[in-house]
Design brief:
The protein is an alpha/beta fold and about 250 residues long. It is built from seven helices and twelve strands. The longest helix is centred in the middle third of the chain and has 14 residues, at about 110-120. It is globular and about 50 Å long.
Length: about 250
Amino acid sequence: MSHARGDGVTRLPAPPLLRRDQALFLDFDGTLVAIAPAPDLVRVAPELPDLLQALSAMLDQAIALVSGRTVDDLARRIAPFSGVLAGQHGLERRSLDGAVARSAADPALAPIRHEFTRFAARHDGVTLEDKGAGLALHYRQAPGLASACKTLVQRAAEASGDAFTFIGGKMVAELTPRRGGKGRAIAAFLAEAPFRGRMPVFVGDDTTDEDGFTVVNNLGGASVHVGEGATAARYGLAAVGDVHAWLARSLGR
């Protein structure tokens, strides 16, 4: 069930505090850090890595960041947190032992990468993020080009057959392999230790998180949407600061 938010129609209840027998999955941009004009400009609160490490201890390591960013990028930004990471919407994964499994790039992505590179070079304010297995056009600094960016990525997805899919996010149009998705990543984590047998909690803010909310809802877990907008999530938090405060309260801080 979707909830209309932002117009005072429905205000989702705040999530209950975390329990030690749960598994926690967290988006990054817009959830743990405020969205910035460009991906490289995000600011990570100094206390965030320690907060994540403390949550890992509380949950017996059943915590994972699930992001559209690459694993390497995530790892650098939240170091020294050493827990599980899923990057590129689940196409990359870092396990508890630090090993990283990466999805190989489809050779069909090469000509699309060239086309997107030329497009970004021709349009001021558009930034191409090359994730290896997928591509993202960011237009936060050129909102008037939203339609052009989306159209370009949608056409590339359609021309690829079943190889790639279009994902629209906050000021970003992304081309990603169809085999990815945060819902699939969460489901895969829940089939293995240390997540197996635990009730999932997933916190996210964007359309790219909705399939994760659906998976968690179907399992009877807690889905938490950050910010405003229609969502399948059952709980809500207003902003990144509220997410940090909720996590800290769950730790008794």
